[in-house]
C-alpha cells in the first residue's frame, strides 16, 4: 500500500508528544515521561521553526478532504 509520505520525510516511530488544536492553539494532549513538556502546554515552535509555518507546509500536502481533518492530521505529523 502506498502512502502520501515517506519515512525519509517524517521518520519512524511515535513522537514523544501528541498535539491537537485547542482554542486555536497547538496544545500538548499526550506526552511521554521524558518529553520535557506537560499536558496542556502550548507549542509555539519546534526546532526554532514556528508551529504555524510547519502546519501550513503540511496542509499544502492536503492530507484530508476538509479543513478540520487536515488540521488534525497536520498536528499528528508536525512533531
What is the topology?
Elements: H1 7-10, E1 17-22, E2 25-31, E3 45-46, E4 49-50, H2 51-60, H3 67-77
Antiparallel strand pairs: 1-2, 3-4
Helix pairs in contact: 2-3
Explain what the structure shows:
β3 and β4 (49-50) form a beta hairpin. The longest helix has 11 residues, at 67-77. This protein is globular. The protein has three helices and four strands. The two termini are 24 Å apart. It is α+β, with helices and mostly antiparallel strands. It has helices spanning 7-10, 51-60, 67-77; strands spanning 17-22, 25-31, 45-46, 49-50. It is 32% helix and 22% strand.
Provide tags for this entry.
single chain, alpha+beta, two-stranded antiparallel sheet, two-stranded antiparallel ribbon, 79 residues
Task: Using the CA coordinates, give the radius of gyration.
Answer: 13 Å
Succession of helices and strands: HEEEEHH
What strand line-up does the widest sheet have? Answer: 1-2
Structural class computed from helices and strand pairing: alpha+beta
Morphology: globular
User: What share of the residues lie within helices?
Assistant: 25-40%
Mean pLDDT: 83
Overall strand count:
4
Q: How big a fraction of the residues is strand?
A: 15-25%
How would you sum up the major sheet? 2 strands, antiparallel
Give unreliable regions as ranges: 1-6
